[in-house]
Write a structure and sequence with these properties.
single chain, alpha+beta, f41 fragment of flagellin, N-terminal domain, 3-stranded antiparallel sheet, 8 helices, 52% helix
Length: 411
């Protein structure tokens, strides 16, 4: 048997290295217990660290999807509330249209209060169409920072179809396909302006104006052949007569799952040739017509027909059929909103299903993450007690090994 010589220095070095390893193990266990994490650094367990990163990224994606859905769901709730209000307004307008149609054979005094309430409801509907959610307009397409619907008492268009220069104009067509009914009495139009392309200004005709509600025509005094084809005209009324759309046809989407988007907005109105589904119908883009939004124009026509029923009757013009048609027109607007609510319900259902799926995936990923990352407290505490006992025993053994010094030999 061969014996090798073990020096005091060798024993001391071995003892110190063992103590250091033991302290390192104790420090690691203390860190795991204090943080609750088995893996804090990639070097602790490279394989688990990679899986932890994957599960953490997946949880971040899931949380973002859930936040997207919550934001979209809040907007959907706001939209549903707006649709509910719009339907209530339209139901009231329909009731008034039925009442006006029934009372039309009677006096104008019976119809004026109905027309006044219709006017108020038009303004209420316009206000609802310009509602915001989180500081952004709901029905403006991508133009969320600009009021989508503008109301005005000024009607602009380009004159066309005249055989020759004239002093009389017929009201222009609107998005409904019919001419505007905005002239309700002789004083409806307060001013007529013509655009001067050279100076870029609007100039008033500056003469007396006569409006005829029965023929929907306006005449200026003077016989100067004031109007010609191609003139850009502005008619100024004593009441609001038009609502135009300033938004666009964009529809926002939000990602609710990987590769799955859901629309979150509705287009307020669209160009008459776009065939895009909208809340308030089309808006004419023909400069020869009044650029009015269809749904609002139908309600304006109802109001104006009620206001001028007697004047039209006295001139031999029967507008009973127009009042009856208004009921059908209102039903058409309501159907459009009902369709939008149905689509909104489908969107909400998709988001609910996605939320449920994300919540299940979140629980599963948290479980898998915990398996790789979290420390087993019972095991870690048991190991810590064991390591501490080993450490104390090592100190005691080391004290006996390295206690012999040169002074002991001198004794």
């Amino acid at each position: 048997m061969v014996f090798s010589r073990v020096t005091n220095s060798a024993m001391t070095n071995i003892f110190i290295n063992d103590i250091r390893r033991n302290l390192a193990d104790i420090t690691t266990l203390q860190h795991q217990i204090s943080t609750g994490k088995r893996v804090s650094f990639p070097s602790d367990d490279p394989v688990s660290a990679d899986r932890i990163l994957r599960h953490t990224q997946e949880l971040d994606k899931i949380d973002q999807y859930i936040r997207n859905i919550k934001d979209a769901d809040g907007l959907a709730s706001s939209q549903d509330s707006l649709f509910d209000t719009l339907e209530s307004v339209l139901m009231r307008v329909r009731d008034l249209a039925v009442r006006g149609n029934n009372e039309a054979p009677f006096t104008q005094n019976d119809l004026d209060p109905i027309a006044q309430e219709v006017d108020q409801l038009i303004h209420m509907m316009w206000t609802q169409a310009n509602q915001k959610f989180n500081g952004k307009y709901v029905f403006g397409g991508f133009q969320t920072d600009k009021m989508p619907f503008a109301i005005s008492n000024e009607l602009e268009y380009v004159v066309s179809g005249l055989g020759a220069a004239t002093d009389t104009l017929t009201m222009p067509a609107t998005s409904t396909g019919n001419i505007s009914k905005a002239i309700t009495d002789a004083n409806s139009i307060t001013d007529i302006q013509i655009f001067n392309a050279g100076t870029g200004t609007w100039n008033s005709v500056g003469v007396a104006i006569t409006s005829d509600p029965a023929t929907n025509q306006v005449t200026v005094a003077g016989g100067g052949n004031t109007f010609n084809n191609g003139d850009r005209i502005r008619l100024v009324f004593n009441k609001d007569v038009i609502i135009t759309y300033n938004g666009d046809m964009g529809e926002k989407e939000v990602e609710i799952s990987e590769g799955m988007n859901v629309k979150t907005t509705f287009v307020g109105a669209a160009a008459d040739a776009s065939r895009q589904t909208t809340i308030f119908g089309t808006q004419s883009e023909d400069e020869r017509t009044a650029k009015s939004v269809e749904a609002f124009q139908l309600l304006f026509d109802l109001r104006d027909n009620l206001y001028k029923f007697q004047a039209s009757k006295d001139a031999g013009v029967d507008i009973i059929n127009d009042l009856g048609q208004a009921i059908t027109d209102i039903d058409g607007i309501r159907n459009r909103i009902t369709d939008a609510r149905a689509e909104l319900g489908g969107r909400v259902n998709r988001m609910e299903l996605a939320t449920n799926r994300h919540e299940s995936m979140k629980i599963e990923n948290k479980k898998l993450l915990s398996n790789h990352e979290d420390v087993d407290m019972t095991e870690a505490l048991s190991d810590l007690v064991l390591k501490q006992n080993i450490y104390q025993a090592a100190l005691a053994a080391g004290a006996k090994i390295i206690q012999t010094t040169l002074l002991d030999f001198l004794r």
